[in-house]
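Form 12-C: Joint structure prediction
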Amino acid sequence: MKFFIDTANLEQIKEAQALGVLDGVTTNPSLMAKEGITGKDNILKHYVAICNIVNGDVSAEVIATDFDGMVREGEALADLHPQIVVKLPMIADGIKACKYFTDKGIRVNMTLVFSAGQALLAAKAGATYVSPFIGRLDDISTDGLNLISEIRLIYDNYGYETEILAASVRHTMHIIDCAKLGADVMTGPLSAIMGLLKHPLTDIGLAQFLADYKKGN
Ligand code: G3P
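Section 2 - Result
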């Protein structure tokens, strides 16, 4: 399972990278704004800064909602760095742009996916990644994890190579459940990744080992 971090915060990206388990980064306009990164030039520079920290894929989202605008913005994003994956919204022009980029060998992450039908279209258009937002489905009393199972089944039925990138992951159990269900990738906050580490018996056991070592030395 690949681990992506879902943030535009460079310090958090560095911390996850230093842990040695980071496979990539996802961002979106809201995450950029949260870090105070505004204006086209600053945003583009920030993507390059992220690419220079991590070894893996970095999703960079277009703002345009029409085909021509998405193509223009997506090509500029893809030109920034070989690690960039163009992130497109799940609307009709987004699917058209996905096919356009895929035919040109530019990788795409289809975002804002909330149904199995949307995920099927993304795979048919050749997306490298599809991003079902599980946390936002949970927010409206709909089972986000069930969507991961449905997409896994459909993709396996037909051998689609599009990777299921579980997004809007909010906590550690989301990561574990997505791993059980066969999501290829998860993207979540640093807190959810670090939460995987925690177990009181690990802390108690380590304290005991150190105390016993000290007795004999
Ligand atoms: O990866 C998608 C993500 O950025 C949305 O997460 O927590 O705002 O639903 P959230």
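Section 3 - Comments
The longest strand covers residues 84-89. The pocket of SN-glycerol-3-phosphate is lined by residues 6, 26, 28, 31, 133, 135-136, 167-168, 170, 187 (CB under 6 Å).
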